[in-house]
């Protein structure tokens, strides 16, 4: 496939150099309530900064209420409390609490800058109108267990007993075992304990009003415990797809946030392209896999959802050579011939924004094409394996192409505690 000689530069591509160049994106989004912003890696400066700039405009111009990200609930809730003025200190202190590998994914200066803007935006607003920042992921099992036990001991001793029973199930394996083996050999009845806990917390959540959003915090930490059981049991016995369990958890968490804030509220989601780009437009569907982009379209409606992908031709990225390895700056090679990234470079050679609903774009991008995805584990020398065959107009509504990217700026943290193993397909 080659479309570089089929269209003029002005037909579908819009130069992207400043905030003003995002106005066309705002027009395309219109009154949609669910805007999902992707990234082609978890370690690229431009993806973070453009997502932040887009989010600012969505918040200021269209009244979006919160941002939900591909991060652990407890860590992101600490950011949420800071930007809403409930904790003191500097944002760098909050981000230093992100200690699970890959630490750089959220503990970076780009997030620090955006969180600082959010705090300034929120400072003059009533608490109920402050923009939130929440994590959707399922990995924070131990942290969520400890938070829920400590909180319920003060607020709901009866339910706290359920939480302690659930914690006791897994505690013997905390120090010595990986997540993958915890549920394989945990005590009988653990699943029943965490499900009973989740049910009781949800029934009593309205009583937890000791501090703002305490009920929400209790519910989501309990949800993490329940779905972590499913996720790591599946990993241990090679049962149900762990990818599907994880993305279903993220969708369930997103729905809990929507229900909590009100179904009329508008939501921004930050996740990797592999999560927000509709899985049905890739080979994932042939393996029975779905993702949050597909689920949002199905549950909330295509007409109310906007999926924005990101990608680049070459540059640098922060990643690790294996799970748990020290982070390092790696060079991203030029997009391989015939790939979406290579075709984009051949045509534009500049940063661009474009939309797949435009008739010419539908025509030009009608064929499936390899589209690069870089995970937290990355091997540039195996570049051909990093491409996902995709039908781009079905996968995204719009796309931001950065011709040459630069690496993210981490806070230089070392990971602590148990490491979470890689998940299909790129450790994303």
From TrEMBL:
<dbReference type="InterPro" id="IPR007815">
    <property type="entry name" value="Emycin_Estase"/>
</dbReference>
<dbReference type="Pfam" id="PF05139">
    <property type="entry name" value="Erythro_esteras"/>
</dbReference>
<dbReference type="GO" id="GO:0046677">
    <property type="term" value="P:response to antibiotic"/>
</dbReference>
<keyword id="KW-0808">Transferase</keyword>
<dbReference type="GO" id="GO:0032259">
    <property type="term" value="P:methylation"/>
</dbReference>
<dbReference type="InterPro" id="IPR052036">
    <property type="entry name" value="Hydrolase/PRTase-associated"/>
</dbReference>
<keyword id="KW-0489">Methyltransferase</keyword>
<dbReference type="GO" id="GO:0008168">
    <property type="term" value="F:methyltransferase activity"/>
</dbReference>
<dbReference type="InterPro" id="IPR014622">
    <property type="entry name" value="UCP036794_erythomycin"/>
</dbReference>
<protein>
    <submittedName>
        <fullName>Protein-L-isoaspartate O-methyltransferase</fullName>
    </submittedName>
</protein>
């Amino acid at each position: 496939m080659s479309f570089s000689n089929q269209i003029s530069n002005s037909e579908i591509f819009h130069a992207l150099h400043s905030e003003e160049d995002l106005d066309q994106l705002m027009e395309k989004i219109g009154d949609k309530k669910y805007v999902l912003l992707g990234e082609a890696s978890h370690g690229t400066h431009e993806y973070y900064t453009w997502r932040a700039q887009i989010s600012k405009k969505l918040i200021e111009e269209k009244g979006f209420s919160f941002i939900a990200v591909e991060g652990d609930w407890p860590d992101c809730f600490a950011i949420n409390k800071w930007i809403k003025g409930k904790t003191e200190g500097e944002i760098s202190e909050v981000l230093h609490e992100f200690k699970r590998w890959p630490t750089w994914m959220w503990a970076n200066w780009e997030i620090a800058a955006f969180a600082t803007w959010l705090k300034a935006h929120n400072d003059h607003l009533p608490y109920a109108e402050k923009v939130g920042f929440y994590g959707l992921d399922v990995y924070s099992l131990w942290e969520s267990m400890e938070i829920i036990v400590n909180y319920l001991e003060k607020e709901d001793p009866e339910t706290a007993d359920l939480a302690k029973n659930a914690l006791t199930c897994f505690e013997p394996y905390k120090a010595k075992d990986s997540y993958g083996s915890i549920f394989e050999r945990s005590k009988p009845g653990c699943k029943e304990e965490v499900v009973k806990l989740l049910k009781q917390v949800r029934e009593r959540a309205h009583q937890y009003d000791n501090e703002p959003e305490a009920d929400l915090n209790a519910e989501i930490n309990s949800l993490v415990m329940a779905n972590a059981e499913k996720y790591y049991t599946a990993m241990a016995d090679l049962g149900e797809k762990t990818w599907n369990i994880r993305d279903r958890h993220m969708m369930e968490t997103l729905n809990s946030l929507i229900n909590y804030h009100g179904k009329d509220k508008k939501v921004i989601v930050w996740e990797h392209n592999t999560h927000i780009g509709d899985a049905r437009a890739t080979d994932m569907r042939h393996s029975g896999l779905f993702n949050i982009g597909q689920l949002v379209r199905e549950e909330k409606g295509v007409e109310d959802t906007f999926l924005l992908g990101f990608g680049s031709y070459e540059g640098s990225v922060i990643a690790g050579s294996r799970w748990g390895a020290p982070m390092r700056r790696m060079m991203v090679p030029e997009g391989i011939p015939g790939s979406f990234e290579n075709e984009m470079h051949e045509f534009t050679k500049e940063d661009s924004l474009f939309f797949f609903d435009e008739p010419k774009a539908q025509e030009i991008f009608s064929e499936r094409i390899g589209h690069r995805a870089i995970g937290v584990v990355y091997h540039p020398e195996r570049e051909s394996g990093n491409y996902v065959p995709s039908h781009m107009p079905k996968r995204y509504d719009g796309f931001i192409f950065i011709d040459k990217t630069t690496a993210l700026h981490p806070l230089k943290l070392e990971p602590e505690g148990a490491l979470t193993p890689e998940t299909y397909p790129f450790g994303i």
